[in-house]
Amino acid sequence: MAGRVSFGSDLHTDVESPADEDGVHDSFCQLIEEQCYGRHDDGMEMTPLDPDLEDESRDDVVYLDGPARHWSESLSDAPQQTDNLIGERWSSDTLKVLSSMPSRTIGRSRGAIISQYYNRTMQLRRRRQSRPSIQHFPHSARPSIRGYGVETDGAGFQEEENKRERLVNNLQNLSVSDRVRMLRAMPLSLAEKKELRMLVLNKGEHSLSENQIPCCSQLKYYIINAVRHGWYSWLSLVSSLQLWQTALKCVSGRFGTGVLSYFVFLRTLLFFNIFLFLFTALFLAVPQAVLPPAQDTHTNNTSRRSSWGLEVLTGAGYFSDSVLYYGYYSNQTLQSGRRCSQSSNGTSCDAAFSYNMPLVYFFTIGAAFFITCIILVYSMSKSFGRSFRIDKSKGLLAIKVFSSWDYKVSKKSSVRLQRANIGTQLKELVAEVNRQELKSPLLQRVFRIFIHMLAWIMCLGSTLASVLGVYYFSEYMHKDLTSRVRSSSSDSLLKEASLLAVPVLVSSINLLLPGFFNAVAWMEEYDSPSVLNYVSISRNLLLKVSVLGVLCFHWLGRVAMDPQILGLQCWESFVGQELYRFLLMDFIFMLLDTFFGEFLWRLFSQKALKRKRKPVFDIARNVLELIYGQTLAWLGVLFSPLLPVVQIIKLLFLFYMKKVSLMMNCQVSGKPWRASQMTTIFITLLCFPSFLGAAVCVTYTMWTMKPSAGCGPFRGLKTMFQAGKLWVRDLALANPSLWWLESAHTYLVENPLFLFLSAAVFLIVIYFHSQVLDGQRKIIELLQEQIENEGEDKKFLIMRLQDIHERRRVRSPRRGQRDNEGSSFS
Predict the structure, then answer these.
(1) Contact assessment for residue 259 and residue 663, using Cβ atoms and an 8 Å cutoff
(2) Which alpha helices (DSSP H) does 595-692 contain, by range?
């Protein structure tokens, strides 16, 4: 007894699909009906088995054994849970139903696809739409069961060719852009798409020769092709000109994404400093260098130079009276091309070029910080979107295995780089997939918590001791310098050398204390390398922030409050020289750390200890050193506008030095790990503790601190901020129609509420962006759960179908046997 099988799904979910579900369902129904009625007109019937097949316990169907089965068996001989749908011998009716399922036919049934897109091209020709809605058919990645001995009833080859011919005709009548969009969206292989395209082009050449094409159309075609080729060439050139692209690929291929994140972050800081240098040099240094101030406006005498060459280390001497420091800039309006004319009223002079240096200095520093803030917030928001998305390691592993190779790469060196890069990323993904959280006993967990608390107490205690040491030593050096000024000591060499004492102490702490943190972390025995890096970053960050806080208090609370005690005519230039010394000493101690901590340690370990082990690259310490140096550069922009030049030179040397030392002296971490969020964390730390702290210090200096009376562009003013106020007032007096500008300056610039509101807007933007990402993450998780549930439903239906078939097959031989017995008795 035959029974027609039909599947009807009435599934309702609470999750709102991001796509147009009605269109998707209509397209699926249309495609399924076309296959069912076009190619399976006889339907799927559960026909009874032949009674003569009594001896056969199962149908003679090819055994469906997928590659996943062999792969899982080759990995381990231990008994594992296998899918009950794999390794079954399905009946022919079940296989017919499976072959008719949409997930097994969409993208592989050429007849149905050609017919479907024939209808769509007809609609497109009628409506003349610019972009057809053909995105409802994603290319299925599930394995098809065609080719396993299953025969399906369908339309003949001639009908398919007719549909193909009609599709080619419709594609020929479309515009070029519509034709390209249609071919791209078709779920066919590249070979079939190329064949369709060639058929359309060949048919077009036969129907319309080149002589019949209008001249304007030919010219338009050539222009479009030339512009397209030029654009592609430009993109290729820009891609090849990316800074350190090959070096970064080498680092990523050998040491993984964790070490790569350090060098990418270093390149990001280099771009920030190049922007600062160009901005300050264009608006401040170049105009002042072209029109230098008079000799009597110099703060320090140029004859005060060090004969020992210490000015390179201290920043004093020759550099004191240069555009490098604040005190060199004039407080007057720079004028060039003065022309004087005689008249009855007297002599009148006007300038062809007028440049208000105090106003430009104020707004240049403010605009540089504002633009940097916008770039940082945008970079952090974009990095959050890339890093905190839903990406399961198993899915990324499959993507990396099957679709990560770039077949356009033909150069041997590029092939080796790509192979090493993919291999390292596969190791990281496999390690993340295989990483499991071990459940330890209660007593062991309590002991580990005690060890962690003890480690944090030791780290916080050492940090506090270092901060107190820096504070008391800076106070001592301040008093020593005061006594030297009062005693009028003539030993200039000792005086300049004493200026390096505090920078040397701080750089020594930054060099030695992170090593102590690493020893404490070794005692804690973290299982995850990523957790170890995050803990190290937090401890080093606490150290750097505390030391910088003490130094800012020393500069703004001691030096700037009473500069006459130190005999300073320009305390801003002195603070700029201090920042220069700290930046230079930091670079020198990083060189010493690379030489002694990596190179000599490798030689000692290999020659003396006879070990092949090399040191592992310390990501946390090196990244925090970069953030510390960048904070010094941002703090010094106000007091030394060209200080970013020193930071640029430092970063360039540092990149090549660290890269060479990494390749020679370091080894890959024993535990591979994927740094999926390291760059985001680095940008966040650069934005909030580093840039925000520097911006607060600079803003406090410009709004509250009194400038030096004998140097700089703000001499004679109560605060640096007053320069903008005076300019707005003079502008309003000269032009009464601009009276509103003074009010706007009072309420928007002078009022601190505007800055707080601006900061609040940036924080709200970041918060809403993170909330949107969190909502998208939850939707993706719900959709993934829905896909898994639908897969389970499909397995259940297939198992029920097979169970029904097995029961009917058992009943059929018994009924045949009873019929034979009845005929024998009769």
Answers:
(1) no
(2) 601-603, 619-636, 643-665, 678-685
What DSSP character marks residue 296? Answer: G
* 792-810 residue pLDDT tens: 888 888 888 888 878 887 7
CA 601 to chain centre: 34
Helix (H, G, I), strand (E, B) or coil at 347: strand
Q: Which long-range contacts (CB under 8 A, 24 or more apart) does 297-303 make?
A: 297/330, 297/711, 298/328, 299/327, 299/328, 299/569, 299/570, 299/573, 299/708, 299/710, 299/711, 299/712, 300/327, 300/569, 300/570, 300/573
Query: Are the C-beta atoms of residues 174 and 123 closer than 8 Å to each other?
Result: no
Q: Say how far apart CA 50 and CA 90 lie, in whole Å.
A: 17
Question: What's the mean pLDDT in 622-645?
Answer: 95
Q: What is the pLDDT of residue 390?
A: 52
For residue 146, give the DSSP letter.
T
Residue 52 and residue 815: Cα distance in Å, rounded? 12
**Rounded to whole angstroms, what are the CA distances from 774 to 216, 374, 390?**
53, 23, 10
How is residue 144 annotated by DSSP? P
Backbone angles phi, psi at 85, to 5 degrees: -90, -10
692 vs 686: CA distance, rounded Å: 9
Model pLDDT, residue 61: 35
Mean pLDDT of 681-704: 91
DSSP string covering 452-464: HHHHHHHHHHHHH
Q: Is 334 helix (H, G, I), strand (E, B) or coil?
A: strand
| Alpha carbon 275 to its chain's center | 20
CB atoms within 10 A of CB 691: 21
Nearest to 637 by CA among 367, 365, 272: 365
pLDDT digits (tens, 9 = 90+) for 37-61: 444 444 344 444 444 433 433 333 3
What is the per-residue pLDDT for 25?
43
Residue range 225-243, pLDDT digits in tens: 788 888 877 877 777 678 8
Let me know: does 513 contact 462? Beta carbons within 8 Å: yes
Dist. CA 217–CA 213, nearest whole Å = 7
Most confident of 41-55, 349-363, 540-554: 540-554
Count Cβ atoms within 10 A of the Cβ of residue 452 and give its class: 0-12 exposed, 13-18 middle, 19 or more buried.
middle
Is residue 788 exposed (0-12), middle (13-18) or buried (19+ Cβ within 10 Å)? exposed
Alpha carbon distance, N-terminus to C-terminus of the chain: 25
Quick: pLDDT tens for 449-497: 999 999 999 999 999 999 999 999 999 999 988 888 877 765 677 777 8
Burial class (CB in 10 A: 0-12, 13-18, 19+), 244: middle
